[in-house]
Structures are given as structure tokens and as C-alpha cells.
Give the backbone structure.
Amino acid sequence: MLRSAEADRDRFLGLYVFLVAGLVAAAALFIYEARLIVEDNANDEEAFAVLLAGNQVLHDLENAETGQRGYLLTGGSAYLEPYRQGVDDLDDTMPKLRQAVAADPDSVDLVRKIERARSEKVMELARTIGLAQSGNREAALAFVRTDEGKGIMDALRRDLDILLDRWRYRRSLATRDAHTRVIFESAALAAIAALVCGLIGYAAFVQRRAFASARDASILLTEQATHDALTDLPNRRHLLNALDALTIECAQEGVRATLLYLDIDGFKPVNDTLGHAAGDALLCELARALRATIDEDDLLARVGGDEFVVLTRRNADDAQLRALAQRLIACVSATGEREYGGRFAIGVSIGITTIPDRASTGLELLDVADSAMYRAKRAGRSQYAFGAASDKPFSNVVSLVR
């Protein structure tokens, strides 16, 4: 019996040593795999930024070209607005694209080619519009018919397609790799559970701890991926997910929802005068104030440097939406006054639209509200404007208030 007890003890010690070694190896593997998953997520974010900036460059150029063609064909000065807006926006989007691909030499070379083509295209657009404005409209149209501009755009699109295809492939690799590693980790956890079946109590403890760690890590990664690090508000990715869900909900249940696109007026002088730390502090204060102004069920997201979005599913009429916009304007003005005592004129321009009566999808809801915000901003400080898609009955409804 003594020999049997000693043998049982030796077997238990051997099993315990093997179990501890296995757990240590598994923990090290789990940490290593988790780090690689975080890297995959970072690669996905990097690719997303390149795709977003590249598509925006093409969008801006197409807007500018559309404005040019409309002006040359009709002579209407209204077509010059999308042309100027597209050219102005390119000054912002090209640096973003350069920054997004800075770590990849091959992509940097492609972006240089795209930038040269962009410059040539902008010069071609400016030349034809200049000819038309000076009374030589036929000369401008003749120049367009040479297809020089089309050749530039075709070359630019080819280079952009190569660039975006490259980063789409990288993004798919990162996604597949993360998925494979999650499956691998799940299999490893199952193997560990099988190995510790001889010590059920200890195995249950290890299993609970491992699952809790995995759940916490998953929650943390999700939180980091869908929330703004500065204000802790939902970010653009979170908003886009909410808009996708809203599109389905509107199609199935016919609910009405509203999106308000907010752009802070007077924010740049704070950054330029007091520094970025002061600007960040102001954004945090504005986030807290805006959150307190809207309903608890409403979504407040930060989608850009000084841009916020309010998404509400309340079935409010336009009068209630105007009242909400006025409260938001008053909230921002009061925050600026409280923080700086009138030193900086802090305000907010707001674009408002609703689904399904003014927009058909969640993404269209965002685009229309963004465009309405720019109309409000062009009309002056601290104003709001309603906007609608071109195929909606409210497409011409615009309301401004000082």
C-alpha cells in the first residue's frame, strides 16, 4: 500500500509538473497569439485608412470633373461649386493618403504617380474653366475633346486600382490570419481542457480563468476598435455599424430616425493659439456637454477632428428637430463661453436629415447630413440646415437659424 501510495504520489507529481508546464506553454502561446491578433487589427486599421483616403481622392476628382463638365456644357456658375469643393478637398485627402502609405515604399511610389496625375488633372480642369470664363467656351470644349483629361483620369484610376487592390489584399490577409489564430487558440484551449481532466477541480478553475481572460481581451479590443481614444465616444466605425443596422431596421419595421452632423466652428484658433492639448481638452468638454444635452438612448459619435454625429431613433417632427438643433448650438456656445470667456467664438454648424423620408439608407443618411452641414457652414456661424437626397421630396428643404 505504501508503494501504491508512493506510486500514486509520483504519478500525481508527474501529472502536476506536466500540467504546470503545459499551462505555462499554453499561456505563453496565448499571449503571443493575442499580440499577433492585435497586430492583425492594426494592419486592418492601416489598410482601412488607405482605402478610405484613396477612394476619397477619386471621389474629389470626379466631383471636380463633374463641375467642370457641367459648367462647360451649360455655362451655369452653380457647377463651379462642386468643382471648387473637389479641388479644395483634394488638398486635405492627398496628405492623408501619403501619410497612410508612408510605411510601404512601393505604395509611396504609386502615390507619387497618383499625385502627379492629380496635379495634371487639376491644371487641365483649371485651364478649360479659365478659357470658358474668358469667353472662349468653344476653345475649352475643343480642348476637352482632345481627351487629354480623360487620359489623365484613366491613368490615375489604374494607379489607384493597383494601390487599393494591394491594400484590400493586405486587409483580407490580416482578417484571415486573425480568424485562423482565433480558431487555433480555441483548439489549444480544448486540448488543455482534455489534459487536465484528471484534476477536474483545478481544470475547471483554469478553464474559467482562461475564458474570462479571453472575454476581457475581446471586449477590450472591441472597445478600442469602436471608440474614440480621446473622448471615449463611439467612433466612425461604431457609427457605420449602427447605420448598417438602421438600414435593415428601417426596411423591416419602417421606423423613422434622424442624423445630425455637427462641425465645431472656431476650433482651429484654439488649436493654433493654445496648442493641441487645449484643443483636445475642449473636445472632451464638448463631448460631455453634448452627451448631457441629448437623450440617453441617442447615439453621440466623434467621426473626425472636430466633427460629431447625433443619431436618434425618436420619431420627431421637423419642429422638434429644429428645437434639438438649437439646444445643441446653445450647448456648444455655452461650453465655449465657459471655457474661454468669449476669447474664442466657439459655435457649431449642423446638417440634419431623416430616414426614410429624406434618405434611403444609413450611409446616404450620413452623406446627406454631411452635405447639409457644409451648406449651414457656408451660410454663417452656428446655423443648421436640413438636407435630403436628390430623389426625395424634401430635397430642397433647407432651414437656417442664427
Q: What stands out?
A: The chain has two domains: 1-226, 236-386. The first helix runs from residue 2 to 74.
